[in-house]
Amino acid sequence: MKNYKINSAKDPAGHYTPIVEHNGVLYLSGIVPTDPFTGEKYGDTLEVQLRGVLRNLKLLLESADTTFDDLIKVCIYISEGEDWGLVNEVYKEILGDAKPARLVIPVGKFHKGYLVEIDGIAQNK
User: Does the model's pTM come out above 0.90?
Assistant: First the structure.
């Protein structure tokens, strides 16, 4: 197994590794809407937080020399079900032609004012 994290990023607040690779498969831990370098929360709206989380996802994939095209599955956890349309719109804009399997599930209130969290699975090149 091999572990990855964003270069120069702060260590995670919890006891986990951002990405673990096993047999060429990358397992991404939950990505919350905080700047990986400063630890500051990305804004107070779902759109701002989602854009920040997807930025973090891109940086994490790059740390393992992969891209959105290498994603196999993405799970998106949101606080409110009625936000599905906004999530789909922003996700499509940022991921472009990449279309991994995906799950969007409303989970209710998060801690720290977070409105979204994403995890995923990717292949390593």
Answer: yes
